[in-house]
C-alpha cells in the first residue's frame, strides 16, 4: 500500500483521512507556529542584547556576552532541549523546575538561535561604514543617540537577510520538540502515518513546513524592504510588492547557519 | 564528595559510553561533510551551466530540501529506505549530507560568482576548453573563498547530528538520553554530552575564525 504508486492510488481516501484528522493537525500547526514565533521573538531579543553587548565599551560586558554566545552556540540545540526538559527538574531547590513543554521549546530555541543571531547583530554593527561613526561625533550626537538613530537603523537593514535565514533554521529546528513532549506539526503527522501511509503523510508534512518557511520569508522580505526604504536605499513597499516573493538568498559570509 | 544532584559515579560510568557515541557523531560529521562538499559543487555547477529544463527542477528541489526540517527528512527517508538499506546510520549520514549539500551549493555559487569576470575572459582569450577553464581557473579561486563557510557548516552539521535521535542512531546524545532513561539520572549524562560538544566545537570555530581573517 505504500510507495510512490500507492501514493497516487490512495490519494483520494488519504485526503479524506487528512480532512478528518484536521483538528489534531491544526493543533500541531498551532504548537509549531507558537514555538517558532515565541522562540523567534526571544531569539531576536537575545541577539540584539548580546550582539550590542559584544561591542560594549566595558571589557567585562564584552567578555560576559562572548561567553554566553559561545556557550549556547557550542552546545547543541538538542542537548539544551533535553537539559531543560530532563535535567532541570532533577536539580535541587531553588531549581528543580518542571517547565511546560512549550516553555522548554521556546527557551531552547530562543537561546540557541539567539546566540547565533548575536553574531549576526555584532557583524552588522561592525560593517556599518566607519564614516557613519565619525558623522555621529561631527554632529555631536550622544553615543546612545548615535547608536539608536544612526548605526542600528543601518545595521538592521544589513542583518535582516541573515535573521531571515536564522528564523527558518529555527522553524526547522522546532521539528525536534516532540522529543520533549510538545505535540507539534511533525508529531501529529507521524500519528496520521499508519492510516495514510508514509509517502502521503510525510509529503504533507514537508509541504506544510515549506509553506510555513515561506511565510517567514515574506515577513522578513517585507521588513527588509521597509528598512532599506527608511534609510533611503530602496523603493517603498507599496511600489515593490514583487520583492516579497524573492527566494531567500543565502548569506554566506560570517557564521554558519546564516 | 557527592552532592545529591551530581554523582561522580554516574559521571564516570557514562563518560566512556558517551565517547563511544561520540565516535558515531564524528563519523557522521566527516562523511556528511564529504558528501556535502562534493555534491554541493556538482549542484552549483549544474545550476550554472545546465539548460533551463534541468536547472529549474534542480533549483526547486534544492530549495525545497533547504526549507524543510532535517528531522522530518530523516524520519521520512528512514521509513522509506529501511527495507532496502540495512544501516540506519548510512541513511542518516546521507540525509544529513544531502541536507547540507543545499547549503554548500549556495556557498559555491557565491564563490563562483566572486571569481572576477576577467578570469573567464582570460580563459577564453587563451582558448582553454570549458572543462579546463572550470578545473584550472574558476574552481581553485572559488574554493579558496568558500573555505571558512565550509568549516562553519561542518561545525553546524556536527551540532545537528543529535537530530539522529529521531531515528534511534546511538550517537552521543541518544546514548545520554538512553542512560538517563535507564537510570533516572539525566543530570550527568546530558550535561557531559553538552560539555563534550562545547569542548570539541569551540576550538574548531576559533580556528575557522582565524582562517577567515587570513583569507580576507
From TrEMBL, chain A:
<dbReference type="InterPro" id="IPR000515">
    <property type="entry name" value="MetI-like"/>
</dbReference>
<comment type="similarity">
    <text>Belongs to the binding-protein-dependent transport system permease family.</text>
</comment>
<feature type="transmembrane region" description="Helical">
    <location>
        <begin position="166"/>
        <end position="187"/>
    </location>
</feature>
<feature type="transmembrane region" description="Helical">
    <location>
        <begin position="95"/>
        <end position="115"/>
    </location>
</feature>
<dbReference type="InterPro" id="IPR010065">
    <property type="entry name" value="AA_ABC_transptr_permease_3TM"/>
</dbReference>
<dbReference type="GO" id="GO:0006865">
    <property type="term" value="P:amino acid transport"/>
</dbReference>
<feature type="domain" description="ABC transmembrane type-1">
    <location>
        <begin position="29"/>
        <end position="220"/>
    </location>
</feature>
<keyword id="KW-1133">Transmembrane helix</keyword>
<dbReference type="InterPro" id="IPR043429">
    <property type="entry name" value="ArtM/GltK/GlnP/TcyL/YhdX-like"/>
</dbReference>
<feature type="transmembrane region" description="Helical">
    <location>
        <begin position="31"/>
        <end position="55"/>
    </location>
</feature>
<protein>
    <submittedName>
        <fullName>Ectoine/hydroxyectoine ABC transporter permease subunit EhuC</fullName>
    </submittedName>
</protein>
<dbReference type="GO" id="GO:0022857">
    <property type="term" value="F:transmembrane transporter activity"/>
</dbReference>
<feature type="transmembrane region" description="Helical">
    <location>
        <begin position="67"/>
        <end position="89"/>
    </location>
</feature>
<dbReference type="Pfam" id="PF00528">
    <property type="entry name" value="BPD_transp_1"/>
</dbReference>
<dbReference type="InterPro" id="IPR035906">
    <property type="entry name" value="MetI-like_sf"/>
</dbReference>
<keyword id="KW-0813">Transport</keyword>
<keyword id="KW-0812">Transmembrane</keyword>
<keyword id="KW-1003">Cell membrane</keyword>
<dbReference type="GO" id="GO:0043190">
    <property type="term" value="C:ATP-binding cassette (ABC) transporter complex"/>
</dbReference>
<feature type="transmembrane region" description="Helical">
    <location>
        <begin position="199"/>
        <end position="223"/>
    </location>
</feature>
<dbReference type="InterPro" id="IPR014342">
    <property type="entry name" value="Ectoine_EhuC"/>
</dbReference>
<keyword id="KW-0472">Membrane</keyword>
TrEMBL record, chain B:
<feature type="domain" description="ABC transmembrane type-1">
    <location>
        <begin position="22"/>
        <end position="208"/>
    </location>
</feature>
<dbReference type="InterPro" id="IPR035906">
    <property type="entry name" value="MetI-like_sf"/>
</dbReference>
<keyword id="KW-1003">Cell membrane</keyword>
<dbReference type="Pfam" id="PF00528">
    <property type="entry name" value="BPD_transp_1"/>
</dbReference>
<feature type="transmembrane region" description="Helical">
    <location>
        <begin position="189"/>
        <end position="208"/>
    </location>
</feature>
<dbReference type="GO" id="GO:0006865">
    <property type="term" value="P:amino acid transport"/>
</dbReference>
<dbReference type="InterPro" id="IPR043429">
    <property type="entry name" value="ArtM/GltK/GlnP/TcyL/YhdX-like"/>
</dbReference>
<keyword id="KW-1133">Transmembrane helix</keyword>
<protein>
    <submittedName>
        <fullName>Ectoine/hydroxyectoine ABC transporter permease subunit EhuD</fullName>
    </submittedName>
</protein>
<comment type="similarity">
    <text>Belongs to the binding-protein-dependent transport system permease family.</text>
</comment>
<dbReference type="InterPro" id="IPR000515">
    <property type="entry name" value="MetI-like"/>
</dbReference>
<feature type="transmembrane region" description="Helical">
    <location>
        <begin position="24"/>
        <end position="46"/>
    </location>
</feature>
<dbReference type="InterPro" id="IPR014341">
    <property type="entry name" value="Ectoine_EhuD"/>
</dbReference>
<keyword id="KW-0029">Amino-acid transport</keyword>
<keyword id="KW-0472">Membrane</keyword>
<dbReference type="InterPro" id="IPR010065">
    <property type="entry name" value="AA_ABC_transptr_permease_3TM"/>
</dbReference>
<dbReference type="GO" id="GO:0043190">
    <property type="term" value="C:ATP-binding cassette (ABC) transporter complex"/>
</dbReference>
<keyword id="KW-0813">Transport</keyword>
<keyword id="KW-0812">Transmembrane</keyword>
<dbReference type="GO" id="GO:0022857">
    <property type="term" value="F:transmembrane transporter activity"/>
</dbReference>
